[in-house]
Amino acid sequence: MPSKIRPIIMCGGAGTRLWPTSRNSLPKQFAMLLGERSTFQDTVLRLRHKLFERPIILTNHTHRVLAEKQLAEINASADIVLEPERRDSGPAILAGCMVAASQDSASQHADTPVLVVASDHVVTDPAAFRNAVANGLPAARARRLVTFGITARHACTEYGWIEPGVVLEGEARRVERFAEKPDGHRAAEYLLKGWLWNSGNFLFGAQTLIEEYRSFEPATVKAVEAALANGRDEDGAFALALADFVKAEKRSIDFAVMERTERAAVIATSCGWSDVGNWDALWALSDHDGSGNARRGNVELFDAHNCLVSTDGPMTSVLGVEDLIIVASRDAVLVADRSRAAEVKQIVELLRSKGCSQAETHSSVHYAWGSYQIVDSGEGFQVKRLIVSPQGHLSLQKHRFRSEHWVVVRGTATVTIDETIGRFGRSEHIFIPLGAIHQLENRGIEPLELISVQNGSYLGEDDVIRVDAVQHWV
């Protein structure tokens, strides 16, 4: 087995229990929940160490641009594999292992060690985590499927648990049993017996995992092999073939392999791990004031106790409350009892059933060229704030139902309107008539910002007739 480990970073989840900050268009792994970096970025940086090779990022077409932008922000690179459809963690991890095995140049028959980690977890002691990974290598080299169990601090009902057994290789112990999220009484029993929280992170040989998966679900292995064989390069990322990938059984790696195999082993660790599964978990991880409050953004608190208050836009003032979660985004507000934080997912499901766009998307939308934010809208008009990245450009396009007025706020805009090309600086105005073929470019080295006022009978994003198609939508 080669000496260095290939990380596989999973970042295809939606994180609905952290709504409204986390939504499908910007899930929690890409949100700035605890500081200036996302948990995805912290995960990548945690693995920037001599133990590890270049990571493989498993994501989807929707989140690709977010992953690439956030990698660039921390000066990191990775191999990106795109899932055409969510089939749970089993097929995704299987695909990652196949990619790792195929890229290992050390030996045609090498069992490349891979570390599978979630991108939306917090680890406050990265050195302890890396030490646990190193301690798991002897078991992985012995063809064990190693998972990482967190030394339990309390009788948690939000995590799965692992019963450790006899000592195997090094510090690894046999997994006697996996248990799903228990009730309070059973969780207390597990705590007394020294069971571990299931972190959902794994270490094993890529070929070992593939072979073990094949022994349980050969049809899924065949489907993923075909998805790789028939996949294609998409501007530097590898896209699995949809027609083949959808034939893979939709199943988590736990149910597909880990709970069936005789090879399961566990390494215990105390590394400050949390899956940040809901707002109460985020409150526990945050810094608190003298009254137990955690705050982020423009927040004022008066006689408030043990609250989490976060805002991405409006100034938020709180008076005379306790044990509340208050989260204000630009287009949605959540107020909830901290003890019921796990139920936020039900609110999202209700909003989806009512067709509320806020259940899925933010007012800010990201593209390969930059982003836009809806500032205001009403009958017959919509106001957007556009930011175009240096060297970024929108597609050459036209609209059937709307005209647009642009005003440059900063930077220099290069604008094509039909047969003419012009350059416009700060405070200059550009009018785009209905039906005109046009394109916006930023040929500079600084971001371009402008305000767009759209007028027309229909203002939907599908009123775009592209003359070329160069963008990836998020």
Question: How would you explain this protein's 3D organization?
Answer:
With 474 residues, this protein is an alpha/beta fold. It has 3 domains: 6-274, Spore Coat Polysaccharide Biosynthesis Protein SpsA, Chain A, CATH 3.90.550; 286-353, no CATH class; 364-466, Jelly Rolls (Sandwich). It is built from 11 helices and 30 strands. The strands form 7 sheets. It has a 6-stranded antiparallel β-sheet with strand order 20-21-22-29-24-27, with no helix packed on it. The chain has a 5-stranded mixed beta barrel with strand order 6-9-7-8-12. The chain has a 4-stranded mixed β-sheet with strand order 14-16-18-19, with helices on one face. Strand 1 (6-10), helix 1 and strand 2 (56-60) form a beta-alpha-beta unit.
Features:
single chain; about 475 residues; alpha/beta; Spore Coat Polysaccharide Biosynthesis Protein SpsA, Chain A; Jelly Rolls; 3 domains; six-stranded antiparallel β-sheet; five-stranded mixed barrel; 11 helices; globular; disordered C terminus
Which helices and strands occur, and which strands form pairs?
Elements: E1 6-10, H1 39-46, E2 56-60, H2 64-73, E3 79-83, H3 89-103, E4 113-118, E5 122-123, H4 126-141, E6 145-151, E7 161-167, E8 173-179, H5 184-192, E9 196-205, H6 206-216, H7 218-229, E10 232-234, E11 237-239, H8 242-245, H9 253-258, E12 264-269, E13 273-274, H10 279-285, E14 294-296, E15 299-302, E16 308-311, E17 316-319, E18 324-328, E19 333-337, H11 344-353, E20 364-366, E21 370-378, E22 381-388, E23 397-398, E24 402-410, E25 413-417, E26 420-424, E27 429-432, E28 438-441, E29 448-456, E30 465-466
Parallel strand pairs: 1-2, 1-4, 2-3, 3-11, 6-12, 14-16, 15-17, 16-18
Antiparallel strand pairs: 4-9, 5-13, 6-9, 7-8, 7-9, 8-12, 10-11, 18-19, 20-21, 21-22, 22-29, 23-30, 24-27, 24-29, 25-26, 25-28
Helix pairs in contact: 3-6, 3-7, 6-7
